[in-house]
Specification:
This protein is an alpha/beta fold. It has 2 domains: 120 residues, no CATH class; 151 residues, no CATH class. 55% of the residues lie in helices and 7% in strands. The chain contains 13 helices and 4 strands. A 4-stranded parallel sheet has the order 2-1-3-4, sandwiched between helices. Strand 1, helix 2 and strand 2 form a beta-alpha-beta unit. The two termini are 39 Å apart.
């Protein structure tokens, strides 16, 4: 995706400056579909007034604007820049350590939305004759999420290798390619085909696939759990959840863009403690200074 023109980036900071005294914070994010989601999330997290959420459509654009902000911020300390975790670290690319720059701890913001609570909130919009326990049983969350995690683990390890060594398309591939038609199941033949293609490219480029795969696998192995939400892009999980609900449980089709606002109002805030602490901590320092 092409970067925003410099003039447009500068105009966003200028717009924030015009609104500056009307609010407590301004957010600059990647995804053009997520401003409302961040507004709802931050509104639940902290008692602060959001001036505006600006979408820059890529991590590169957010970081570029952050650099411009650093050099010309003057007193714009209410500006916060939020980027996805993704796979950049496998190329030894790290984001600057700064109070106003926040890197998500999971792959993307969607990874935080795809939860059992979020899924049940979607079912409630279509199923009116069952209570929460009945909806939980109907959802069978653990079985479905494990299908997704195990179905996509090896694919995303291959994606990470492809990204690390620039071997071709990877996480930008649309998730629909890897689902069986008219079902919610992961298409093993398609995932295995991609993995085989990357193994061949590795062999051609003197890259030890199995060694690289184990390095990536170990990165996501934590003391008490495996970090699937760090490895697997949330877009794949959200696509899979809608297919699961649409084909397995519901008789009506849910729209992805309408589902996110419902889920963000019902998910647990515990995974966002890092975000809350960074926002409050930085704003408190600014008030003191």
């Amino acid at each position: 995706m092409n970067s925003f023109p410099t003039r447009h980036e500068n105009s966003l900071l200028a717009d924030a400056m015009l609104r500056y005294h009307e609010a407590d914070l301004f957010l600059f994010i990647e995804d053009k579909k997520m401003p409302y989601i961040y507004e709802e999330l931050i509104g639940r997290l902290v008692n602060l007034k959001i001036g505006k959420v600006y979408s820059l459509e890529s991590k590169k654009n957010v970081l570029n604007l952050f650099d411009k902000w650093i050099t010309s911020k003057k007193s714009l300390n209410k500006c916060f820049f939020i980027v996805d975790k993704d796979f950049d670290h496998f190329r030894n690319i790290t984001v600057p350590n700064h109070a106003n720059l926040i890197e998500l701890e999971k792959y993307t913001i969607e990874n935080y939305l795809i939860t059992k609570e979020g899924a049940i909130s979607l079912l409630k919009t279509k199923i009116f004759d069952k209570d929460k326990d009945e909806l939980e049983a109907l959802l069978d969350w653990e079985n479905w999420i494990n299908l997704m995690y195990h179905g996509f683990k090896d694919l995303f390890i291959a994606y990470a290798i492809a990204f690390k060594f620039d071997l071709g398309p990877n996480t930008g591939i649309k998730p629909g390619k890897y689902f069986e038609k008219k079902t919610y199941l992961v298409d093993k033949n398609m995932t295995e085909k991609y993995i085989l293609d990357i193994k061949k490219l590795c062999a051609e480029n003197d890259i030890e696939y199995e060694r690289e795969a184990e390095i990536i696998n170990q990165y996501y192995k934590k003391d008490t759990y495996y970090d699937y939400d760090g490895l697997i892009k949330g877009k794949y999980l959200s696509f899979g959840l809608l297919k699961y609900l649409n084909f397995k449980i519901l008789s009506v089709k849910l729209d992805e863009d309408l589902c996110y606002p419902i889920m963000v109002k019902n998910i647990s805030l515990e995974p966002f403690e890092f975000l809350k602490n960074k926002l409050i901590g930085s704003i408190s320092l600014n008030l003191i200074s």
